[in-house]
């Protein structure tokens, strides 16, 4: 079966979204004569100045399919009856019929498609957004934007990277995208270290592989840590796709990345990969990497970090660092303190080349179905999130209820206590009742959100450390493989990635000798690694040509 492909990790310095609240939202923009497209309703054809005023008149109703959100149900309600949806309907003048599909394939096969669907189309639709269009599941919206969604059009075309990532390989818009408007929003995880141990042992934060090894030795010998670097093979292999450690060996990722030569590379096929593998194997042999790393689960990794068996881990700023700090406090450990550790560099003082970095546009978009009978209203409704008023609403909710104006160091829209200090709800659950900044939707995410969602000083410092990198230079954008290469790419990739994963574990644990590394590399070549890379190079070249 063909697989839709979306490669994560484009890295760009992007300007933050500026938004302000007001009364009725309106927009203006110039339109040109639009070509007729094959869709459920006619596209606009006259050239005129467009003005959209909210709420829309006419009392229209639209159906919307959206994935179920655990943060909503955990709050004891359904999305339809949250203050967010209630006021969104009021603000836009559109009533929503909301469904939460569990099997999207069933929805797409239905003859009764909802008007709008929120999906990561490149990652989850078999063949990607372009195939969804050709299948009639969704429509191209290019010819509707000038007249019915001018704010979205202005927003998404204001940054050429956003425009490219929001379009099909043919350069066609297929939905209303969720956009991370700042590099601070594109990074959410990294290495996490026991800061209190570092202070007790009077150690400087490690910058290179050798310095990290020395820190782990100190954790083992002076803190009696049985698993100084507490992580499982699956976890470390995952984070190494971001080059958190392998960056110290000149590899921005162990997977696909953009080299300094402007070409596509695959880390596990580069010469430096052997040095990285040897280093990880050495950590394991020295008892610095969890001896149960091949089998350890997330719960055990967490327990080891909290009970002093580990001093280094990897995780997100929220569910990792934030939750670990909260757990330590509940356990009465007043000394426990964590901080984010920058990805490793080859030389001390150099800026890291690795680091987790999401694409600003990931493929997640609300698309209009091929069965929608009122494309005009759907476009106008979705355009709301890109107006000044709508942008603030999707990010923060209602002024005076879920946010107030502020003049803080990092933000000007401050969530109220009902959101961030709710006795009955976590911060995420509180946010979920009033806005969508924590999750996504048809709007540009504001950086004001992250500084408050991660409200601990340790989390905010981690964000600074994890984004202090040159990762942007090496991250590929989200790419779509050409249809005629998709089967070959999927077949080769499945075999290669399984082989790499298996041997990664074998090499690190010593079950396969590094003397056999050249055989490993040759096998990758024989499996078609160079073809695998070439197909992705062609996808990247097509992306550049948009």
Kindly describe this structure.
With 546 residues, the protein is α+β, with helices and mostly antiparallel strands. The protein has 2 domains: 26-184 and 360-445, D-Maltodextrin-Binding Protein, domain 2 (3-Layer(aba) Sandwich), CATH 3.40.190.10; 186-357, D-Maltodextrin-Binding Protein, domain 2. The chain is 40% helix and 13% strand. It is built from 23 helices and 15 strands. The protein has helices at 70-73, 83-92, 104-109, 121-124, 128-134, 142-148, 150-156, 160-165, 195-200, 209-222, 233-240, 272-285, 298-306, 317-330, 375-383, 388-396, 417-420, 427-434, 447-453, 457-467, 483-508, 517-527, 529-544; strands at residues 26-30, 49-53, 60-65, 94-99, 116-120, 176-180, 189-194, 256-258, 264-266, 312-316, 338-341, 361-368, 403-405, 413-415, 444-445. The protein has a 6-stranded mixed sheet with strand order 4-3-5-12-6-15. A hairpin with a 5-residue loop joins strand 8 (256-258) and strand 9 (264-266). Helix 14 runs antiparallel to helix 20 and helix 21 (483-508) crosses helix 23. The longest helix has 26 residues, at 483-508. It starts with 25 loop residues before the first strand and ends with a helix. The model is unreliable at 1-48 (pLDDT under 50).
